[in-house]
Amino acid sequence: MEGVARATVSADVAVVGAGLSGLRAARQLADAGREVIVLEARDRVGGRLFNATLGDGVTVDVGGQWVGSDHVRVQRLASELGIEIFPQHGDGRNLLDLGGKRRRYRGTIPRLGPRVLWDIFIARRRFDRLARAVGAEEPWAAERAAELDGETLAQWCERNMRTEAARELIGLAGRTVWGTGPEELSMLHVLFYVSAAGSFDKLIDTEGGAQQDRLDGGAQLLPLGLADSLGDRVRLGAAARRISDRGSGVQVVADGVEVEAERAIVAVPPAIAARIEIDPLPPGRPELAERLRPGALTKCMALYEEPFWRGDGLSGEAVADTGPVTLTFDSSPRDGSAGVLLGFVGGPEARELAALPAAERRAPVLACFERLYGPRAAQPLDYAEQTWTEEEFSGGGPTSNFGPGGWTACGPTLREPVGRIHWAGTETATIWSGYMEGALQAGERVASEVLESGRTVG
Ligand SMILES: Cc1cc2nc3c(=O)[nH]c(=O)nc-3n(C[C@H](O)[C@H](O)[C@H](O)COP(=O)(O)OP(=O)(O)OC[C@H]3O[C@@H](n4cnc5c(N)ncnc54)[C@H](O)[C@@H]3O)c2cc1C
């Protein structure tokens, strides 16, 4: 980009990334009377929140979607923006397709044999107890941090759970919660995540958990509403390429614009932020980017004339181990005027699916839908798939995860400001990290950090 003409603008704070986190920070700073410029690489705001359209106008969330029962910041913002929240459809029986056997059940935990159920019950209690001891503020400083960071979720389950079916279910849940297989996740990361959410059940539950509600009109309405309120302070198509901390201020060089500011906020996933040249290079950030890797989560949505599975007494929620789809939900519009089945493909299966030519990805997904919901599921009116690993400015989703050793090696660098550069984004949150709620919490935290730094010119 050297030699390309750019407009130079001045601001108190330059925010890199117009996802929910960067926009929330910018709004708070603007409300406090600070001049902000938000630089967004894409030609749209919202990052990992993205509304797509199926058929002749059915809006679907191909990124983040659900509002949890205690996602108070999201609920407040939705209410401020006049976006209605409605319950995730859950009436009817769920399906479990495990080891070639299909069962119908109600609630989050399927009716399996008593040994398996007991195994899951004990594991959930242990996750919660260990998570309380780890906390979400400084997991690397927990008493057993080194030991817990030294093993994967898969190894922990192998040591502590007795039944293969229970281990399999934890692994399947993890593929969607983290977009990662259990053999890649640090146990300390899992416990940090559980702690930030409040409990293991909150991560996996629909009612009373993270999947409780949806936003009418799609979750991208949240960042769109925030961006609207910020007006021309948000610059699209402005990928930040270089941030120089000159001691007395920062210079952010982006496509088409150069910002001279007192401080910079980087509200981008760490692995993606590492592509921005930062001068001087903050120690520890390259290793952080190497170790905190975006998960792989692909959302597949099929549109039907109606949510026909409801007529069969099914909720649309299914857990399956055949793959590539391991979890489905009813993602139909609020009024049920059309049927939308959502299938998640996560972790290793998401990478395998992404390796296929785009035209060949739909068939294995629809085969899963058909196995679960019958022949009508194989004939959708329309179909959409969002492969987040292919997104240059996201790198994956739903969040980024540490493998073994990551938290203890890099934890302290995650949020710590470096000179005049501050870090936001859901990965840096201590409440509901990885979720929209975490993105907002991190945005609020970083805005307060900048305001309290006392050096920002008002
Ligand atoms: C498939 C999927 C399902 C999910 N489901 C849910 C859910 O149901 N509920 C929930 O709460 N959360 C969910 N999430 C997570 C949620 O979407 C994220 O936690 C949240 O959107 C993250 O917001 P953010 O602002 O931290 O980051 P992002 O949304 O990633 O925003 C970062 C922004 O920075 C921009 N950017 C990157 N590099 C640069 C650069 N160099 N210069 C300028 N801009 C740059 C990006 O384009 C992007 O707009 C899901 C995510 C995915 C992918």
Key attributes of the depicted protein:
single chain; 458 residues; alpha/beta; seven-stranded mixed β-sheet; 33% helix; binds flavin-adenine dinucleotide
What does this protein look like?
By secondary structure, the protein is of the alpha/beta class. It has 16 helices and 22 strands. Strands 1, 2, 10, 11, 12, 13, 14 and 22 form an 8-stranded mixed β-sheet that branches. Strand 3 and strand 4 form a beta hairpin. Helix 3 packs across helix 7. The protein is globular. The two termini are 32 Å apart. The mean pLDDT is 96. The structure holds flavin-adenine dinucleotide. The site of flavin-adenine dinucleotide has 41 residues, from helix 1, strand 16 and helix 16.
Query: What hetero molecules are bound to the protein chains?
Result: flavin-adenine dinucleotide
Helical content stands at 25-40%
Structural class: alpha/beta
Shape: globular
Distance between the termini: 32 Å
Number of helices: 16
Give the amount of beta strand, in percent.
15-25%
Largest sheet: 8 strands, mixed
Tally of strands? 22
Taking pLDDT < 50 over at least 5 consecutive residues as the criterion, the unreliable ranges are none
Radius of gyration (Å): 22 Å
> How much is the average pLDDT?
96
